[in-house]
Write a structure and sequence with these properties.
By secondary structure, the protein is an alpha/beta fold. The chain folds into 2 domains: about 10-240, TIM Barrel (Alpha-Beta Barrel), CATH 3.20.20; about 260-465, no CATH class. It has 14 helices and 17 strands. The chain has helices spanning about 10-20, 40-45, 75-85, 105-120, 140-160, 175-180, 260-275, 280, 285-290, 340-345, 350-370, 420-425, 430-445, 455-465; strands at about 30, 50-55, 60, 70, 85-90, 130, 170-175, 190-195, 215-225, 235-240, 295-300, 305-315, 325-330, 335, 370-380, 385-395, 405-415. Strands 1-2-5-6-7-8-9-10 form an 8-stranded mixed β-barrel, surrounded by 4 helices. Strands 11-12-17-16-15-13-14 form a 7-stranded antiparallel sheet, covered by helices on one side. Helix 4 (about 105-120) crosses helix 5 (about 140-160) and helix 13 (about 430-445) packs antiparallel against helix 14. The model is unreliable at about 420 and about 445-475 (pLDDT under 50).
Length: about 475
């Protein structure tokens, strides 16, 4: 903590030993708040000597009259804080206060939304984003739900590195036990923002502070005088270790503010795109930056052998001529028909492990769509093959009212001359492409699609080249 070293077991020291929050009257130079800071409230922060503040990247918070207000940072707010010498550390929380929030896939979508928001606001590389676990997670819940969620966040942050995006650090907000568990392993959180204010949390009872703690939230209060004096501001007081310096100035990209319609459409793309094999690895900038929904985006290519393109539309387009198309209708209850009825006799060509991957792929895409369709079109001739995978979401609610539609189409094109194909699949990234191609081509062929010999040849060749034995069940594919 940040208690002074006096050599005496005084009242603040004793209280710190008894409860996680300790003596709440101790001074602090750090705080966090859900209120957008303006010229009036920044004066209050300065008067009370607050030098660093935690603020939210996105979201709303409930008000006393049953309504909601935005808690998300603005460009103007960050300018005001910078001019007044107050640093900022960003927090991501669009939920996270109940156990059921932490499900498979949530970490990936939250991470992309956080990176997108931080990038739009101009937070530079090296900024730590704190992802909130804002409830008393028991030990088994931390192990079974929170850690897998944070592992997904870590994977996205690592994917974004070296891709022309800011390189952010991973912070965790939660109880002592949650933060301790997230320090190592596959999460390896850079810093912890410890919620010690919740003294009754089981995760704060009997646990030491995590070694990587940067902020320690210990008391909720209102500062300011009100009336004609300083503006009132609700804050949480934080101890500050000095490990995370926060951000003193931002440099937002030269883009205009996005509309609610655009944000709703891009959020829908993130939910869909995270479930399309390889798309996050191929083209992470689609998830984290403002994109043109009217353009075709080249996600990846290996010479003249493999190309991966992404297209968007506001409707489900008719099937491509000259190919074989399968359309799976999707409702909130899932796809129409069982996996067995979809795959039919072709189930026999897959190993159980691979079959499980395919079933998860279809289920995850269907969940992200809600109501709409999954469409797969495959055509091929000779050594060439093209696969279009389209996920169509029929109902995208817009904040303030209204609905939109979005179709996300990923086009995989392969043109292989088998004489020198081996050399093309030697790099790590190329092997990822090969694995994805083997996955999606064989799936498209299996889902009630007549066998196209060239398509099977291409997919089989790629799978064998990268050594993915699960893509080819011996003698059956």
């Amino acid at each position: 903590m940040t208690l002074p070293e006096t050599g005496v077991a005084d009242m603040p020291t004793i209280k710190q030993l008894l409860t996680s929050n300790g003596y709440t009257g101790r001074p602090a130079i750090a705080c966090d708040a859900s209120t957008v800071i303006d010229h009036e409230t920044v004066r209050t922060l300065r008067e009370y000597n607050y030098q660093i503040i935690g603020r939210y990247l996105t979201g709303n918070v409930a008000t006393g009259n049953g309504g909601v207000r935005s808690k998300a940072m603005t460009h103007e707010e960050l300018s005001i804080l910078a001019l007044n010498g107050i640093r900022v550390f960003p927090i991501y929380q669009d939920g996270g206060y109940y156990h059921e929030y932490f499900v498979q896939g949530r970490g990936r979508s939250d991470a992309w939304k956080a990176i997108r928001a931080a990038n739009e606001l101009g937070f530079p590389s090296g900024t730590t984003i704190y992802f909130a676990v804002d409830y008393d997670a028991y030990g088994f819940q931390v192990e079974n739900n929170i850690i897998p969620y944070l592992e997904e966040v870590r994977s996205v942050i690592d994917i974004a590195k070296g891709k022309g995006l800011p390189e952010y650090k991973l912070g965790v907000y939660g109880s002592r036990n949650t933060c301790i568990q997230a320090q190592g392993g596959n999460v390896s959180a850079d810093y912890s923002f410890v919620g010690n204010m919740s003294t009754g949390y089981s995760g704060n009872l009997g646990f030491p502070m995590p070694k990587n703690w940067s902020f320690n939230q210990f008391h909720e209060m209102t500062i300011g005088l009100g009336g004609i004096g300083l503006a009132l501001l609700g804050i949480d007081k934080n101890d500050y270790s000095g490990k995370d310096p926060g951000v003193s100035a931002v440099n937002p990209p030269d883009t205009s503010e996005v509309s609610k319609e655009y944000r709703a459409k891009h959020d829908a793309f993130i939910e869909i795109g995270k479930n399309i094999p390889g798309l996050q690895e191929f083209s992470p900038e689609l998830f984290a930056t403002n994109i043109n929904f009217s353009a075709t985006h080249r996600a990846f290519n290996i010479g003249n052998i493999v190309t991966v393109d992404v297209e968007f539309s506001e409707q489900l387009n008719p099937p491509t001529e000259g190919g074989t198309t399968t359309t799976l209708q999707v409702t909130p209850d899932g796809i129409n028909g069982s996996h067995e009825s979809l795959l039919g006799d072709n189930m026999a060509q897959f190993t159980q492990n691979r079959l499980g991957f395919y079933e998860d792929f279809i289920d995850n895409i269907a969940t992200s769509i809600g109501t709409g369709a999954i469409q797969m079109t495959l055509k091929g001739a000779g050594t060439s093959a093209e696969l279009k995978v389209t996920a169509f979401k029929e109902e995208i609610p817009v904040e303030g009212g209204g609905n939109l539609q979005l179709a996300v189409t990923v086009i995989f094109t392969v043109d292989i001359d088998m004489t020198d194909v081996t050399d093309a699949f030697t790099s790590k990234e190329a092997k990822v492409v090969g694995a994805v191609l083997g996955f999606v081509f064989l799936l498209a062929l299996a889902v009630k699609t007549p066998a196209i010999v060239s398509g099977i040849a291409v997919a089989s060749a790629i799978a064998l080249l990268i050594g993915d034995q699960d893509d080819i069940d011996d003698g059956s594919a």
